[in-house]
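Q: My collaborator sent me two sequences in one message, no labels, and asked for predicted structures for both. Can we handle them in order? The first one she listed is below.
A: Yes, handling them in the order given. First sequence, followed by its structure tokens:
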Amino acid sequence: MDHSHASFDAYMKFLAEPPADGAPVVLETWHALSLHFDLLATQSFMSRRDPNRLVLGYTRTMMGFLLLQPAPTRVSMIGLGGGSLLKYCYRHLPNTRIVAIEIDPEVIALRDTFHIPPDDERLEVVCADGAEYVKGHNARPDVILADGFLAHGMPAQLGNAAFYEACHARLADDGVLVANFIGNDPHIPHYLEEARSVFDRSLSIFMAEDSDNYTLFSWKGAPRLPSRDTLLARAHALAKTHPLNLRSTARRLKQGARIASDWTIAQKLSG
């Protein structure tokens, strides 16, 4: 069988039959599966050869929370998608309890397609509004990963002060919030201002690896990040068990803290 031809046919069919009404659609080729709400953006991407590998650069950047929380006891994820971050954490953080909150039941229905493990004592997938879940749940996660998108983009309730206040209240005392923003979203400076109103100077924003997306890190505890050398040393130690480019993330995390503190620089993110 000519697998390249079959993959081309699958792609052409996808172009001819675009997603309707924001319904999730899976594009299947010989090498990969990807999740889409429209023709313009890829929500999730899975390698058939290695379903647990983080293929998209922004997901590897979001795992930079390990530089601040190398062994979290609990991680909450807002947005399931194809489960890339969930699967990585489930495999590489065996002592971590993971809860993924997804608002769209049609996305959850694709969990077997994307090799997402079934719920067990370490893993739970909840069908709910992520912003409301954070406000109403009593758990104290060490990490919250916000990567929730619908067909029209990121819901407004995941980028306002009320959401950041709820995350701040819910996080453990030294917890970390990591949020993914699409690079062409004109509201990024607004999200940053709203986050700053809650987390004050404990912010960093920078461009994700191999991506046009931006990643926001917000944390509780000391407002200043550890030194660059300390972060690089942590990245070196973590490299033994995590196939991620954490040294690069460590550098950008420090640089991003300066960007987040300078409003004139932050405004350029919307240009």
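Q: And the one she listed second?
A: Here it is, processed independently of the first:
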Amino acid sequence: MLEKKKTTKKLLIAVLGLWFAILFGAIIIVVLVLNGYISLGAPELPGAPPLAKLENGSLANDFALENLNAEQVRLSDLRGKVVVVNFWATWCIPCVEEMPSFQEFQNQYPDIVMLGIDQKEGLEQVRTFLEGKGIDYQILLDYNAKVAGSYKVFMLPTTIFIDQEGMIRFRHYGIMTPDQMAYYLRTLGVIQ
């Protein structure tokens, strides 16, 4: 009986050790992907940012979301312009870190439309958070993350680039640098 308990305990320790190793390995892979050491980019994207994913050019799902002035903004109304859709939240540090560069691109290239889609937070919470940050590109509220779900957003930040015809061209996972943003906009012909 005592021998059986020892064997059971050893087996339990071995199984727990295996699960811990799998979990630890998965965390390492996620960290490597988010820091650009493992690329999600397609091989046909030479020079692309490490977290780039070329999309197949499918039509972007239309949506209508409320902005911070309680006005509805509909994606299909923006056809004819390049639209950069950034999914973010106030608690997401990388999301907040990339916002000033998005604002700079919006200021420098008024022909693009920046849409920041906040996830599952309230109007007053987002409005208060943005006070004094100098962000004036469109911030939209996805209260129930329905739009994020329709775009298969599984992590924040995720940024999607939509061309003038309303087709999805690129998806970027994680924080985006100004050089990476410039790459996407240059590829879409918005900047030189």
